[in-house]
Amino acid sequence: MAAKCYSVITADVVDSRKIESFRVRRDRKLDEVSRLHLKEKLILSPYTITAWDEFQVILSKPENTPRVIFDMRRLFFPFQLWIAVGMGTASGVHKNPINIHAGGEAFERARQAADQLKSRNSKHRILTRFESGKEIFDTIANTIYRLQDSLLQGTTVKQWAAANMQAETGRQEITAKRLKLDVSTVSRNLKRGYYWHLVETVDAMEHIVKAYF
């Protein structure tokens, strides 16, 4: 029987030293995303801070990765995140904190992906990186997210607000009511913020991950 594959995310906040009250805001956001992802059983344990501006999490299934990335992008805004994904075997995944007790391929590859993100010299903004040990999968995933990172570069506060509310409600009419906007404005903000592209990416990448893992 093949060893079980895990997905580990190591994330860093870009330019964290320039963010006012960073520690308080970081902890608040980590608490929010931990509660959401634990409730929906997307992760095995709460997000663990591994450095001032770095945190880590291990997912309950590899196919949860696209959804978790989507939530991290929208819930951490206006923070920009480097999101490094490592896939492979892992040990000690049910012990906390994971940065002390857990290890293995998935963690090593997440670190490798994180190092590549920070050192990469590219003409394009690259904030997401996969390392899985599967060359074709990595090519597909990294190409998709390189395009998505470019699309999101100009997303505004109002567009992210619409995306967050839409992700919560699932209906534009309710989103508009809660944001005290008309439906046409919400629709425009979602379209210009590439919300539907994000949702389609999550759905497509879930199928791709399942096909490879």
Describe the structure.
α1 packs antiparallel against α2, α5 runs antiparallel to α9 and α6 crosses α7. This protein is an alpha+beta fold. The mean pLDDT is 94. It has a domain of 148 residues: Alpha-Beta Plaits. The two termini are 14 Å apart. The chain has a five-stranded mixed sheet, sandwiched between helices.
List keywords for this structure.
213 residues; Alpha-Beta Plaits; globular; alpha+beta; 5-stranded mixed beta sheet
Could you give the count of β-strands? 5
Helix residue percentage: 40-55%
Q: Strands of the biggest beta sheet: in what spatial order? A: 2-3-1-4-5
Distance between the termini: 14 Å
Q: What's the shape? A: globular
Mean of pLDDT: 94
Classify the beta-strand content into a percent band. Answer: 5-15%
CATH topology of the domain at 6-153: Alpha-Beta Plaits
Question: H/E order of the elements?
Answer: EHEEHEHHEHHHHH
CATH A-level architecture of the domain at 6-153: 2-Layer Sandwich
How many separate helices? 9
Q: Unreliable segments (pLDDT under 50, ≥5 consecutive)?
A: none
**Alpha-beta classification:** alpha+beta
- CATH homology superfamily name of the domain at 6-153: Reverse transcriptase/Diguanylate cyclase domain
CATH first level of the domain at 6-153: which class? Alpha Beta
Largest sheet: 5 strands, mixed
Q: What oligomeric assembly is this protein in?
A: single chain
Rounded radius of gyration (Å): 17 Å
